[in-house]
Design a protein that fits this description.
The protein is an alpha/beta fold and 630 residues long. The protein folds into four domains: 284 residues, Alpha/Beta hydrolase fold, catalytic domain (Rossmann fold), CATH 3.40.50; 116 residues, Sandwich (Immunoglobulin-like); 93 residues, Sandwich (Immunoglobulin-like), CATH 2.60.40; 112 residues. It is 22% helix and 33% strand. The chain is built from 15 helices and 34 strands. The protein has an eight-stranded mixed β-sheet with strand order 9-10-12-11-13-14-15-18, with helices on both faces. Strand 20 and strand 21 form a beta hairpin.
Length: 630
């Protein structure tokens, strides 16, 4: 990481950009406004463990073109980023490793080849489908379009926990800089994920490293070289730092969720540099299940109140990098990052450097970030300790003194942790059936355990819908309301009251019945200045949703808001298949199959209507319903 990279990343006046660079920034930003993220999961019962290619492609007058593709190291979640258009999603398991589909390999199409047209500047999720031998004759001729799209470059896996080689060009400092100036193009090449440097080992403490603006995994070379790898396993979060930070923070949460679902780790340390501290804090304050396993958070040289020059750039630059908007002092993203305290289970330490300068035009700084921003009182208030070093913004990552201070904190944190043994946890023996018996199983299913008392968050365990009986755990002892959750199905009973005891197995029995449902979240329609892939513009307080009405198939239902419901009450209502409208989310259950009109009324917004189709036993979460504000 060169000394002035971050500085260049936030010096936002047009004069620092060459004509060529400015054109590239403008093109990337424009494409960002027209693009959408696609989220889904590939399910495979294949005995093979080969890479899986997931491809979004379009057809125009019989010609195929690739919008984006992802490589997975195993069946599981995928993400694609496509520009505005109509797409089909195809996947195959590359059994022979040649990067192209060959007859006999396992294949699949989302919705049997149905096309989808994602919202520009938005997100589509729930695009799950299975690969098998059934659809092998439906494979599109994508070899030539893939070669044209990739330009000869090979992508690495974006599965959470994929093994990475930091010497790969994808992880280079140059690619990290490109991730700032051209985030969309960079995402399509490198993705946004957590990578391992070695296979997961439950006996080693995982340490997650998060780089800053224009950074890359290679920024952590000194820490990684000096870390005791017999005790610690490093994880690396790699992201295009020019993207909206809300989107980046969401990716961090999602990848940790994926890893927790696979490994159920109960301890994790997080170390973040510069802007990565803001991304990390925004993710760690959320009440996510995996965040209960985070024991230590260390921020290094983080601009906690942003950068004043970012505001200047947003206001005057002819091409605005998306993340600049979030780095303005007191931006909406920064306010959200401090909207909650860091959870009590996380020991937080703040490191900063003070070797820099100051002038009439620039406050005291570490050659990049001002001391005022690094020492924001809100961040200091959460810190167990604030430690300053005679280092600048770059040298602080290669300082032996800094690393030794970190290791002392890590060892103290470990000493204070109460090691959790498997014998102190309980387990659940879950059996499920379908009514009628020939019902097609869903692709996703989870056991959700909500504590019967208190406000503690829920615990989730992913289950295989095609396995009638399976044991899951380990579960902290206590009393729970347990529900088997599968979208498009009703669980009978809606919940079990179960006591989980240490070293014991509790029996749970469920019947899943197909039910029609309609659900979604409501946002504001973003204007041109705020239209970026993966970014939602929340409805402001003055735009309160007053009603959501569903009419069709011989029924009419209207929901009024119940904004006093707690998050726990909303979850329990959803798991019980009861209609609700709370804040900007809603759900209708027990709907007959058919076509419906969905209408939304909100203060200060244009009336909203759209058509939806309901199919019991099938539910794909829709994109956000965007209201146009007056």
């Amino acid at each position: 990481m060169n000394r002035f990279r971050f500085t260049l990343a936030i010096l936002l006046t047009a004069c620092i950009l060459s004509g060529c660079a400015l054109v590239k920034v403008r093109e990337d930003v424009q494409f960002s406004k027209d693009s959408s993220l696609l989220f889904g999961e590939i399910v495979s019962r294949s005995p093979l463990k080969k890479p899986i290619f997931v491809i979004a492609y379009s057809m125009d007058d019989g010609r195929l073109s690739v919008g984006d593709y992802a490589v997975l190291s195993e069946p599981g979640p995928y993400e694609l980023l496509v520009r505005q258009g109509r797409y089909r999603i195809f996947a195959f398991e590359d059994a022979n490793g040649n990067g192209a589909y060959d007859p006999g390999e396992w294949v699949g199409h989302y919705e049997k080849g149905a096309s989808l047209m994602p919202q520009p500047g938005g997100v589509a999720w729930g695009l799950d489908f299975e690969i098998s031998t059934v659809g092998k004759n439906q494979a599109p001729p994508l070899s030539a379009p893939m070669t044209l799209y990739s330009g000869g470059k090979k992508k690495h896996s974006t599965s959470a926990g994929a093994i990475a080689d930091l010497n790969d060009p994808s992880f280079s400092a140059e690619q990290g800089e490109k991730g700032f100036w051209e985030p969309l193009d960079s995402f399509q090449y490198t993705g946004c994920s957590i990578y391992f440097l070695e296979p997961y080992n439950p006996e080693k403490m995982p340490v997650l490293f998060v780089h800053g603006a224009a950074g890359s995994p290679q920024d952590w070379k000194y820490f990684l070289k000096t870390l005791d790898r017999s005790r610690y396993q490093p994880w690396i979060f790699y992201y295009p730092s020019g993207a909206r930070l809300e989107t980046t923070s969401f990716f961090l949460r999602k990848k940790l969720y994926d890893l927790y679902g696979k490994y159920h780790f109960d301890q994790l340390f997080v170390v973040a540099h510069s802007m990565g501290g803001l991304v990390s804090r925004s993710a760690l304050i959320e009440d996510d299940l995996h965040n209960r396993s985070v024991r230590l958070f260390l921020s290094i040289s983080t601009p906690w109140n942003g950068e004043k020059r970012a505001k200047t750039g947003v206001e005057h630059s002819p091409a605005v990098i998306p993340s600049w908007k979030d780095m303005e002092p007191d931006s909406g993203f920064i306010r959200h990052a401090f909207s909650r305290k860091i959870p009590d289970n996380i020991r937080y330490y703040l490191f900063f450097g003070h070797r820099g300068g100051g002038s009439l035009f620039r406050e005291n700084n570490d050659n990049t970030v001002t001391l005022e921003s690094m020492l924001d009182p809100r961040a200091q208030a959460d810190a167990l300790k604030v430690v300053g070093f005679n280092e600048d913004h770059v040298s602080i990552l290669s300082s032996p003194d800094v690393f030794q201070h970190y290791m002392a904190i890590a060892e103290t944190t470990e000493a204070n942790l109460k090691k959790t043994m498997a014998s102190s946890r309980g387990y659940a023996d879950v059996r499920h059936s379908f009514r009628p018996p020939d019902t097609k199983p869903p692709l996703q299913m989870s056991l959700v355990l909500v504590p019967a008392k208190g406000n503690a968050g829920e615990t989730q365990f992913k289950l295989n819908p095609s396995t009638p009986r399976q044991e899951t755990g380990a579960i902290p002892p206590g009393d729970y309301e347990a529900t088997l959750c599968a979208l498009g199905f009703k669980s009978e009973p809606a919940n079990h009251t179960v006591s989980i005891a240490a070293g014991k197995i509790s029996d749970l029995r469920y019947t899943l019945v197909p039910q029609g449902m309609a659900a979604g979240i409501i946002t504001a329609a973003a204007g041109a200045a705020d239209s970026y892939w993966g970014y939602f513009l929340e409805l402001s307080g003055k735009h309160k949703v007053r009603s959501v009405t569903l009419e069709g198939a011989g029924i009419r239902r209207s929901l009024a808001p119940s904004d006093k419901m707690s998050e726990k009450q909303v979850l329990k209502t959803f798991l019980s298949s009861k209609d609700f409208l709370c804040r900007n989310s809603f759900a209708f259950f027990d709907l007959p199959a058919g076509d419906y009109t969905l209408a939304i009324e909100a203060d200060g917004c244009e009336p909203y209507k759209t058509k939806i189709t309901v199919k019991p036993g099938e539910f794909t979460p829709p994109p956000p319903f965007r209201l146009v504000t007056k």
